[in-house]
Amino acid sequence: GVKKGGTRAVLEFIRVHPEVRALGTEPHFFDRNYHRGLEWYRSLMPRTLDSQITVEKTPSYFVTKEAPRRIFNMSRDTKLIVVVRNPVTRAISDYTQTLSKKPDIPTFEGLTFRNRSLGLVDTSWNAIRIGMYAVHLQSWLQYFPLSQIHFVSGEKLITDPAGEMGKVQDFLGIKRVITDKHFYFNKTKGFPCLKKSESSGLPRCLGKSKGRTHVQIDPEVIEQLRDFYRPYNIKFYETVGQDFRWE
């Protein structure tokens, strides 16, 4: 999935399923740690039964050129789950996260445009580039058929977590165990939370770094970004056969 799209939520929700075991941390094997070799990667994985599915999540894989080939070389049968979210909101969320760590970075507007009066968006800025989903998807389709890739809507994950997780379970070929009984809506965070987590019987909400209040952005900038992303979004909808309604 993409950074700030809802990948942590999908991982925490799916690992409640008895047939799924998940690695909690992001291993970054197919981008940063590939040189460590497959045995190193395997050694990180949770112990599983033959009937169980092992899941890991590292959002940067989706935008890493080498990742599709490397994953294909490991196993061409790998099932891929991609969580996507409105690219404009995603960029603001990404910037908000960076700002919390580096308060002295330039403004969002300053980083977004190469030339604002001409409306020239700086596609070399990572926060912008990640949201060009149609571009990144092409690298994956060179190795994997669409039938092996499932797209989760980051928006629906908040408004209908059980529905989105139902589709994920169908895609993985496992019984729909995770249903609306598993969720409650936390008004403070503005996110659904699990009534019971995998490891303890206690309710589980995502950590403090989730659900941050976004930086206020000039509506005109948002409008320009919407225009910029529109052709990429349309191409993405057409490629995957799914309309995410980000307009």
From TrEMBL:
GO molecular function terms noted in the UniProt entry: [heparan sulfate]-glucosamine 3-sulfotransferase activity
Annotated membrane topology: Single-pass type II membrane protein
Domain of life: Eukaryota
Listed GO CC annotations: Golgi membrane
Binding site for 3'-phosphoadenylyl sulfate: K4, G5, G6, T7, R8, R85, S93, K210, G211, R212, T213, H214
Active-site residues, as the UniProt record annotates them: K4
Gene3D superfamilies: P-loop containing nucleotide triphosphate hydrolases
EC number(s) recorded for this UniProt protein: 2.8.2.-
Disulfide bonds: C193-C205
Keywords annotated in UniProt: Disulfide bond, Glycoprotein, Golgi apparatus, Membrane, Signal-anchor, Transferase, Transmembrane, Transmembrane helix
Family affiliation: Belongs to the sulfotransferase 1 family.
PANTHER family: HEPARAN SULFATE GLUCOSAMINE 3-O-SULFOTRANSFERASE 2, HEPARAN SULFATE SULFOTRANSFERASE
Protein name, UniProt field: Sulfotransferase
Gene this chain is encoded by: Hs3st2
